[in-house]
Design a protein that fits this description.
Elements: E1 5-8, H1 19-23, H2 25-28, H3 32-53, H4 59-73, H5 82-90, H6 98-107, E2 111-116, H7 120-129, E3 138-141, H8 152-162, E4 169-173, H9 176-185, E5 188-192, E6 208-210
Parallel strand pairs: 1-2, 1-4, 2-3, 4-5, 5-6
Length: 217
């Protein structure tokens, strides 16, 4: 079945969230993966906590705070690398299959978009750095709502902008909690299970599970 719009989460789905630390792996040392894992986990935790409290900070501020916390948890990592890591995060690499998959979907006549917790500036930078600006039709950031996924209002940004029913949208995310939120909203959902994680939220199952974006249709 063809969909009117294919909408993608950004971080972890299109862009490799661990690429920033990997770029400076030699300087960070053997605890680099631990630093990256904590950085990502806290970035998400802070977004959920802020959304529930209704105490807004944009995703870039939370990304900075999460990195500072990760440095505290991993004292072997050199804090002088902070600016370099943040700069690298602003210019994350996309996964290798992303350009071809997005181009193929766009060629069908469907809209291709990003729906992300990322700030406008973060997303614009990532899209340009990965040369995806020619295939992405729209970038929806939560900035205008001042909340985060999985608030239903975030997913509604797409249906309102495109004047579509939710079931006309195929939503792809590597984050299982995001897939659950999108499924509850009514999107067709595809879980990009890059990390080979066990399934959860069994009452809000994805329509399809893939190891990467190849196979999205």
């Amino acid at each position: 079945m063809a969909y009117a719009a294919y909408v993608f989460d950004a971080y972890g789905t299109l862009f490799d969230v661990h690429a920033a630390v990997r770029r400076h792996a030699d300087a960070i040392g053997p605890d680099g993966q631990q630093l990256s894992d904590i950085w990502r986990a806290k970035q998400l935790e802070y977004s959920w906590t802020r959304a529930l409290m209704r105490e807004w900070k944009d995703f870039w501020a939370l990304t900075e705070e999460a990195l500072d916390h990760a440095f505290e948890r991993v004292p072997s990592a050199d804090k002088s690398l902070r600016a370099d890591l943040l700069d690298a995060y602003f210019k994350l690499d996309c996964y290798k299959e992303v350009p071809a998959v997005l181009k193929a979907l766009k060629a069908t006549g469907a809209r291709v978009a990003i729906l992300s917790n990322g700030s406008v500036a973060m997303l614009d930078s990532a899209v340009r750095n990965a040369a995806l600006d020619t295939v992405i039709d729209d970038v929806f950031s939560v900035d205008e709502l001042r909340t985060f996924k999985t608030d239903p209002a975030v997913y509604d940004m797409v249906t309102t902008a495109y004047r579509l029913y939710p079931d006309a949208v195929s939503f792809q995310s590597s984050n299982r909690w995001d897939v659950a939120g999108a499924r509850k909203f009514g999107f067709r959902t595809v879980w990009i299970n890059r990390a080979k994680m066990p399934d959860e939220y069994k009452d809000l199952s994805p329509s399809l599970i893939l190891p990467d974006l190849n196979g999205v249709e």
